[in-house]
Amino acid sequence: MASTIGDMEKGPSNPNQLIIDDAERIHAAEGTVRPLPATPTSLDDPPDGGFTAWSQVIVGHIAFLVSWAYGTSYAVFQLSKPTPTDRSGVMGRLNAALLVLPYGSDFRSPVRCLSDAGHTRLLFAVGSVLVTLGMFTTSLATQYWQILLSQGFCNGIGGGLMFMPAAATVATYFKRKRTMAMAINACGASTGAILYASITQNLTPKIGFPWAVRLNGFITIALCAVGFSLLRPRKIEKRQAPILDLGAFKHPPFVRFSVG
């Protein structure tokens, strides 16, 4: 009894706890719920490392590898085709143009809107299907218009759906190491050029051009499956942007860059 009276005279051991308890009783009496502190995810506090972050670099490397391989090494495919033509170089330029067309202007295309809305995995999946389909249909093509549709349009559009959303995902995971991460990401274009060009050039005399391209297609399926399984876009706060940002044209450097 004496110890209990002594404890009461000393007062509460933790005054802050009494304040918290009183606040909870007030909220309970008023029938209100105390809001939890908001913890939004911001671009200013990326993890800047860890397995998930560096795995996104692998995904971006794969996306660049698959997307830019044909555009950066098209001379090998042009010479390896059974019936090369003077116009076949158009496919390489068309492929590269379709890769950047959805993102190369200030106009918010449907692809950019889907990417900004968080549908990165959907774009990666659709792009993977189109790129793979383009490779396998290229192996069956015998006429110019067939190669144009498969290797020019199908590969170009599919690669355009893949590489930019994957690159944007990499940028959201890094701040201090962002330069190195994006550099490794972009090196995928060179890796793809070496890989696909070497396979096509060395195996065409042995197994023929169609099966050499099909082998590239099987490798692409495996790479895209790995990339899709590792892809984890970050959920970040985003501002609503207009469909066409005319304010960007007020900056002379941007205008000069756009004009070329």
Question: How would you explain this protein's 3D organization?
Answer:
This is Uu.00g037050.m01.CDS01. One of its GO terms (molecular function) is transmembrane transporter activity. Its main location: membrane. This protein has one domain (59-259): MFS general substrate transporter like domains (Growth Hormone, Chain: A, Up-down Bundle), CATH 1.20.1250. Helix 3 (51-72) runs antiparallel to helix 5 and helix 5 packs parallel to helix 8 (144-172). It is 70% helix and 0% strand. The protein is built from twelve helices and no strands. The N and C termini lie far apart (89 Å).
Shape: globular
- The CATH architecture term is Up-down Bundle
* Mean pLDDT across residues: 75
CATH fold call: Growth Hormone, Chain: A
Rg to the nearest angstrom? 27 Å
Distance between the termini: 89 Å
Name the structural class: mainly alpha
Q: How many helical stretches?
A: 12
H and E string:
HHHHHHHHHHHH
Q: How many domains make up the 3D coordinates?
A: 1
Low-confidence stretches: 1-12, 33-40
Helix share, percent: over 70%
What is the CATH class? Mainly Alpha
Largest sheet: none
Name of the CATH superfamily: MFS general substrate transporter like domains
Query: Would you count the extended β strands for me?
Result: 0
Beta-strand proportion: under 5%
